[in-house]
Amino acid sequence: MRISIIGLGWLGIPLAKSLLASGHHVIGSTTTPEKVEKIAGIEVKLFKLDPHPLGLGFQKLFETDILIITLPPRSKSQSGEFYLEQLKFLKSLAENGSIKKVVFISSSSIYPTTARKKEYEEDEQLDQITTGNQTLLRAEALFSSSDIFETTIVRFGGLMGADRIPLNYFSNKDNVDGESRVNYIHQQDATNLIRWVIAEGLWNRTFNGVAPIHPKKHEIFKSNSQRLGLALPKSYSPLQKITDRIISSTSILDTGFEFNFPDPVNFTYNS
Q1: Other beta carbons less than 10 A from residue 74's beta carbon
Q2: Distance in angstroms (rounded) separating the CA atoms of residues 103 and 154
Q3: What are the residues whose beta carbons fall under 8 Å from the beta carbon of 145, sequence distance 6 or more?
Q4: What pLDDT digit, counting tens, does each position of 86-129 carry?
Q5: CA distance 136 to 69
Q6: What is the dihedral of CA 135, 249, 215, 155, to 10 degrees?
Q7: d(Cα 219, Cα 215) in Å, to the nearest integer?
Q8: CATH, domain range 2-165+186-215+247-261
């Protein structure tokens, strides 16, 4: 198939390479000329949404069969409204091109922040009051409402693996939460999940992309320390009664998908 990836970043580059290895024709976008030269083996177009489209030859990105959008909202540097304006232009380009299928990468942060015993599943009733991320809720609705293409939404948990090591963010720090259970997914499983959606034709669906095992943070930190030689946190927060906020992976497992890294304690890393 002809596949376009908007955003050749931490997830987009390994995804592009994986799709290429599977025999697909892949084209991707980046926002800087320097990156165009650095991403070897992948056809790359300079493309930026400001929020209107800017770039060189980017129309080719929308002359494919499938569009994968890995464009997260950058809440620290732009407003939610700016992000949604970017997506409106992106949707218009897709609808006026040859795109028939879209994979929109969202986040499990869309679920309420409330901890509870019941796992959060894809059919959770969300609105602008209950959601944990109003911008993403509106973004999902924007693409799901198209009459031109079919959209599947993938809500990833915390993306780890490669150079993203959980303990790196907490090493030598005080008063660290070690008891909460995590909702992580390994980079390799994230790319495999997107490939699975495409290969199996799982369109007009929503899937959580989260490893099925949810260890406590301190268990992951201990594993990272033992295997990678990183310093543990200096201290943990006082033990309190904790009700976990768990994201379910049942829906994607029910399609036959298998995780290479079902337990975040055993995630592999580059370092």
Answers
A1: 10
A2: 7
A3: none
A4: 999 999 999 999 999 999 999 999 999 988 889 999 999 999 99
A5: 13
A6: -20
A7: 6
A8: 3.40.50.720
Q: Are strands 43-49 and 25-30 parallel, antiparallel or unpaired?
A: parallel
Q: Would you put residue 172 in left (φ > 0), alpha (ψ -120 to 50) or beta?
A: left
Per-residue tokens: 193: 């999940």
What are the Cα distances from residue 187, in Å, to 11, 163, 234, 237, 261? 7, 10, 28, 29, 10
Q: What is the pLDDT of residues 218-259, one digit of tens each?
A: 999 999 999 999 999 999 998 776 668 999 999 999 999 999
> Which 8-state DSSP code applies to residue 172?
T
Which phi and psi (to 5°) does residue 121 adopt?
-115, 170
| Residues across the chain | 271
**Apex 185 CA angle, 181 and 190, nearest 5:** 165
Q: Where are the domains of the chain?
A: 2-165+186-215+247-261
Tokens representing 137 are: 């809720």
Query: What single-letter DSSP state applies at residue 129?
Result: T
- The backbone region for 7, taken as left when phi is positive above 0, alpha when psi lies in -120 to 50, beta otherwise, is left
Q: Strands 66-69 and 101-107, how do they pair?
A: parallel
Q: What is the pTM (predicted TM-score) of this model?
A: 0.95
List the beta bridge partners of residue 27.
Answer: 4, 43
